[in-house]
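Anyone up for a design puzzle?
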C-alpha cells in the first residue's frame, strides 16, 4: 500500500497518509475543501444543527470539549496498546497524586504546553495494566499482527465534492482481515456492548472506513473488527465483528448523512429534529401499563 508522508498544509489529493497529528485530523481543515470524518457524519445523522454547532463551517462554532479525563485516558490506553514505543514521548507522569493543588496544576500546564499529556501515577499504572492484558490475549494479538496503525485515508465524494476522512486504528496487510479499531468500555459483555456500539453509531464509522479505504487502495474490506477492553480490572478483552451486511448498512447511513450535509451547505439551513410539535410516543413498557390500567 502506497502512503504519503504528511508534512503539513492542506491535503489536495486522495490517498493514505502517515504522520497526521490527531488534532489536525479532527480540525475540520485538513483538506482543501469541506471535509468530514465519522464523528461529523454521526452528528449530521443526529441532526444538522448539532453538527453545525461544532463545525468549521460555522463562524460562531462552539469549541469541542476534547480534554476530558475519559478522552485523555482513552488516548493513553490506545497508545500503550498499539504504539507503546511512542508512549514516553507523548505522555508524562505527574509528580503529584492529583491535580487539586496549584503546584500540581502548574506542573501539568507546563508539561502540556510542551506537547505531552499528563497522567497521574495511578492512571499510568492502570493504562500499563490494560496494555499487558491486551498483549496476553491471543485474539487481540492476532488482530493487530502484520499491518499498519494510525493511517489517515482521504477521498473525495464524487456526488457532493465533500472530502471524506477515516483513520482506522489498524489496517491489516491482507484485505480479507478487514479493518480493526480499539475501544475501551465500562462493559465489554457482548450483548451490552453491541447495543452500545449501535447507539454510538460505530456501524457508520465502519461503513465510512471500509468505503474510504477501498476508494484509496482499491481493496475491498468486508468486515470490521473492534478490540474492546474494559477499563477496570481484570481489563477483559473482547473481540467483536461487524459483518458485510452491517457494513453496507453503515455505508447507506454515510450516504444519507452526506446528502443531508450537502443540502444544508447549499441552502444555509441547519435544521434540528424537524421543529414541528408532536405527540409523545410512550415506550413499550409504558404502553403495556396503560393498556392494563384501561
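Challenge accepted. My sequence:
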Amino acid at each position: 500500500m502506497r502512503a504519503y508522508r504528511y508534512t503539513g498544509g492542506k491535503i489536495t489529493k486522495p490517498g493514505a497518509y502517515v504522520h497526521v497529528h490527531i488534532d489536525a485530523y479532527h480540525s475540520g481543515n485538513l483538506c482543501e475543501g469541506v471535509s468530514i470524518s465519522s464523528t461529523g457524519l454521526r452528528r449530521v445523522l443526529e441532526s444538522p444543527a448539532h453538527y453545525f454547532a461544532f463545525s468549521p463551517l460555522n463562524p460562531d462554532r462552539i469549541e469541542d470539549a476534547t480534554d476530558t479525563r475519559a478522552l485523555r485516558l482513552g488516548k493513553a490506553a490506545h497508545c500503550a496498546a498499539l504504539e507503546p514505543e511512542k508512549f514516553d514521548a507523548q505522555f508524562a507522569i505527574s509528580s503529584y497524586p492529583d491535580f487539586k493543588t496549584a503546584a500540581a496544576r502548574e506542573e501539568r500546564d507546563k508539561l502540556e504546553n510542551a506537547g505531552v499529556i499528563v497522567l497521574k501515577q495511578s492512571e499510568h499504572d492502570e493504562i500499563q495494566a490494560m496494555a499487558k492484558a491486551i498483549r496476553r490475549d491471543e485474539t487481540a494479538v492476532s488482530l493487530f499482527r502484520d499491518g499498519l496503525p494510525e493511517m489517515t485515508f482521504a477521498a473525495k465524494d464524487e456526488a457532493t465534492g465533500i472530502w471524506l476522512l477515516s483513520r482506522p486504528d489498524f489496517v491489516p496487510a491482507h484485505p480479507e482481515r478487514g479493518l480493526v479499531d480499539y475501544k475501551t468500555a465500562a462493559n465489554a459483555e457482548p450483548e451490552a456492548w453491541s447495543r452500545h456500539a449501535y447507539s454510538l453509531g460505530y456501524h457508520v464509522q465502519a461503513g465510512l472506513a471500509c468505503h474510504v479505504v477501498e476508494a484509496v487502495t482499491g481493496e475491498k474490506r468486508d468486515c470490521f473488527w473492534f478490540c474492546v477492553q474494559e477499563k477496570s480490572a481484570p481489563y477483559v478483552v473482547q473481540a467483536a465483528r461487524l459483518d458485510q451486511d452491517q457494513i453496507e448498512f453503515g455505508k447507506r447511513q454515510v450516504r444519507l448523512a452526506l446528502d443531508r450535509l450537502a443540502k444544508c451547505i447549499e441552502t444555509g439551513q441547519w435544521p434540528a429534529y424537524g421543529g414541528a410539535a408532536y405527540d409523545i410516543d410512550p415506550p413499550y413498557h409504558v404502553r403495556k401499563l396503560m393498556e392494563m390500567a384501561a
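A detail worth pointing out: The chain has two domains: 4-66+137-285, 67-136.
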